[in-house]
């Protein structure tokens, strides 16, 4: 069997690439060794979000992710539901109310791109009414904002279904255990006893991308970070999402109520080089458990399950807490002298559509094709999305420049926040509007 494009990996990005390429008229096949979206995608926090914390060190990624999240809302909106999130602030926290509100005021600049709503400042009484059981000792107040929850595995499956309807073939449950070669050129893969030949092979294997590239003697620079969530079967241990300062005061964890249960996490630790060996460590369970019980003394125990995955972050210098969540497309003919192989790596679920578009753009350039992506204009069900707001994208050149300079990237982010903080304090001094009560919060998210 012969194709224009063979995609290795059926997570949400691989499924997105199959859909993108098929809609452009390419003959496409995808190989996935497990279930579509059943590995890294399924182990995510299941949020389509811009990454409010990235504003502290990687502002352009927040901008870019919010920009593409808007496309996901328009094309897969029936799978998404708005999740209000409360960020309680206590005496002794590493960031105070004014700092946190400044951060969310800056996030408000990007929220309209993904149909998010402006934040609310909450009184301590409002926090206690909105989130029953929340500890009030030392509670100074809180901030509320919203993100989109999605069943991540369902998003991958629906995206792949859309690709199939556009003509793509999917070989699910079949491992690509060999890349076919003609000299240095990659000409497809062997999977499930089949030889799947292709003019271009796209490596979209997530944390396994390095392993796939090495089958052809190529390299993909990745830093694998392990993330664990604890899961309670009760889908509504809290009526809203929460963003909580963890026990080490250096990170934050989400509490996400959903049809899949209530998830607490994730952790963020260096993972093994082999993603198949990622396991939840007892220290991670203790860390997440203590982090949530810090705020909910009566939180039920024990948890019912854990889930762990490896995040495929781009290899880059700098401390782990400053690692960019940007993505990159690697053309291995230019990089490693291996024609016929392209890799897309890094990124996150919230920008899977634009990752797929960029990867297929690179494949089309090698194939000499000029067909443009239509995934932003077409829903997963094949309907036109209608009008699309003309939000500006961040500078690609500046993003690339800052990606390799983590300290400069952090300073760029902090310069924006510093100016915003000065403006925030000036508004507070002039008598900014009072904090919202629980009734106003409920009207906002009715």
Gyration radius, to the nearest Å? 22 Å
The overall average pLDDT, rounded, is 95
Shape: globular
β-strand amount: 25-35%
Sheet with the most strands, sense and barrel status: 10 strands, mixed
Write the CATH homologous superfamily of the domain at 1-46 and 151-221 and 315-373.
FAD/NAD(P)-binding domain
SSE succession: EHEEHEHEHEHEEEEHEEEEEHEEHEHHHH
Key structural traits:
FAD/NAD(P)-binding domain; alpha+beta; eight-stranded mixed sheet; ten-stranded mixed sheet; 446 residues
Describe the structure.
With 446 residues, the protein is α+β, with helices and mostly antiparallel strands. The chain has a domain at 1-46 and 151-221 and 315-373: FAD/NAD(P)-binding domain (3-Layer(bba) Sandwich). 32% of the residues lie in helices and 27% in strands. The strands form 2 sheets. Strands 3, 4, 5, 6, 11, 12, 13, 14, 15 and 16 form a 10-stranded mixed beta sheet that branches. Strands 1, 2, 7, 8, 9, 10, 17 and 18 form an 8-stranded mixed beta sheet that branches. Helix 1 (12-23) runs parallel beside helix 5. It starts with a strand and ends with a helix. 50% of the residues are buried. The mean pLDDT is 95.
Short description:
By secondary structure, the chain is an alpha+beta fold. The chain has helices spanning 12-23, 59-75, 97-110, 124-130, 152-165, 209-214, 282-293, 332-336, 352-367, 396-403, 406-429, 438-444; strands spanning 2-8, 28-32, 47-48, 80-90, 120-122, 139-150, 169-172, 176-182, 185-191, 194-203, 222-232, 241-245, 252-258, 261-265, 269-270, 305-314, 327-331, 341-346.
